[in-house]
Amino acid sequence: MAAWRSKIGDPLLVTHHGRVELTNGIGLAVYRGIITDAAHDAALAALDDDFAKGRYKQADLLWRATLKRADDLSRAHTSSIGCRSLDVLHVASAIELELKHFATFDARQQQLARAAGLKLVTPAR
């Protein structure tokens, strides 16, 4: 992510629910025994630092339009892709924010983003 972020130069837009996903994912990594409590605390501190230093920017949305867009995407694609609701919301949010690129590790979310016309950014793990 850092290499891609430095290449584009602009901050990475993150919605409020996207930030919750990041925070929750870090917590789940502890629960699943993937990282330690110390790594959890360091990851949350790094996330907060990314926002504070402007590497990530909080994006605000008009929720009524975003939810309508999510409903449209779900009707068009969920039966063939198997998207979860939050995945659909992430893609709908990107569209409503008029973004051209979409970053995710999730295969179904990638399929939906591609189907919705977004260009995928697949950061190295």
Describe this structure in words.
This protein has 125 residues and is mostly helical. The protein has helices at residues 2-8, 16-31, 37-52, 63-81, 85-96, 107-115; strands spanning 12-15, 56-59, 101-103, 119-121. Strands 1-2 form a two-stranded parallel ribbon. Strands 3-4 form a two-stranded parallel sheet. Helix 2 runs antiparallel to helix 3 (37-52) and helix 5 packs across helix 6 (107-115).
Key features of this structure:
6 helices, globular, 11% strand, two-stranded parallel sheet, mainly alpha
Helix fraction? 55-70%
Approximately what portion of the residues adopt beta-strand conformation? 5-15%
Structural class: mainly alpha
What is the count of distinct domains? Answer: 2
Tally the helices: what do you get?
Answer: 6
The count of β-strands is 4
Strand order of the largest sheet: 1-2
- Order of secondary-structure elements: HEHHEHHEHE
Gross geometry: globular
Determine Rg (CA atoms, Å): 15 Å
Mean pLDDT: 91
Q: How far is the N terminus from the C terminus?
A: 8 Å
Largest sheet: 2 strands, parallel
